[in-house]
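Today's session is about reading a structure prediction critically. Students often jump straight to the picture, but the first step is always the sequence itself: look for stretches that repeat, for charged clusters, for runs of hydrophobic residues. Only then move on to the predicted structure, which in these notes is written as discrete structure tokens rather than atom positions. Here is the chain we will use throughout the hour.
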Amino acid sequence: MKITEVRVWLVEGVKYNWTLLKIYTDTGHTGVGESTNWPGSPIIYHATKHAGERIIGLDPMNIDFIWTKLYRDLNWVGPYGASLCAISGIDMALLDLKAKVLGVPCYDLLGGAFRKEILLYANYWFIRGAHSEKDYALHAGKVKDAGFSGLKFDPFAHTSYLYGESMSSNLGLTAAQQDHAFNISRAVREAVGPDFDIMIETHAMLNYRVAVKMAQRLSALDITWYEEPAGPESADNLRAMRERIPSNVSICVGERHYTRYGIRPVLEKNICDIMMPDITRCGGPSEMKRMATMMEAYNVLLAPHNPNGPLSTIASAHVCAAVPNFFRQEFMFNDVEWRDTIITHPIKDMIRNGHLELKERPGLGVDLVESEMEKHPGILTPKEGFYI
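Below is the predicted structure for this chain, in token form.
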């Protein structure tokens, strides 16, 4: 069996483009994958096309060989970023293809299932209304009513930043802004009650002083984790924060820590309780499984970052099924309606009581519907509220 073609599509998502792909072979077998990242989706699209050209003629059943070849070949342009997103999507498609050839679900190729119902938490649930305590409480209640038992949000988003564009140049918050963020968080806690996980996102957009101070205040709300109090550039900085943030506040990092090599210093310095690698950025399902195994050695839980397209959601769930140290998986509570029409089996039919229920269909259990994807081409010109 040889790879004959790799096709790539840029598809409009809820607030950024999805990069989706399909691998074809000379035997008629195919596999689908996703390499979404943003901003910069056109770069990811072209990187995925280029990486796909480099595997033409190879045996798609040799998944680890192809992963290693691409990682070493493309390492000269950097071990992370666009090249690793491309590798991630190709790895996903190869795993899907091989599992379909063998007639088994992807989680079987990852070691077998510990579970087939994957616990989710809701993100992107607050998209309308004022940044007020009342509106946050109202929408949090809707998440709970939908059967979810956990949610994540950025209470600092009322400062109106688009990844720093309108935020204070020193990443600070005024006393009034700090109070508002705390009051919103308290309103959410009161709306969902005590037996509900609340994850606080910072996007690493707070300076050291404010990040620590807000963690100390939010600890009174029994938050489940405090996400990315600092960026990924220095494990030492994160370690210093860990020492000043209250011990009852779990730290979660990982959406910008890639591959087993990238998470090693974070684990060795015992910085976090939970890690959240992103399957379309960290190296794909094969690498996420390897990362989860490393995390288990340090008693760290896996909670995949997943604000991406439908294949990312399903592939992440397959990894979550196949590891013992799984906690929760991120899920986009609001999404575009064509999330479910561009694949052959809608995700909405897999969601029940805040869980994603994996079926025993071969591979990822879905295929891409090309005619539906072509109805929603990726956006390439600036659009308010959309990350190109």
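Discussion point for the tutorial: The domain at 3-104 is CATH 3.30.390.10 (Enolase-like; domain 1).
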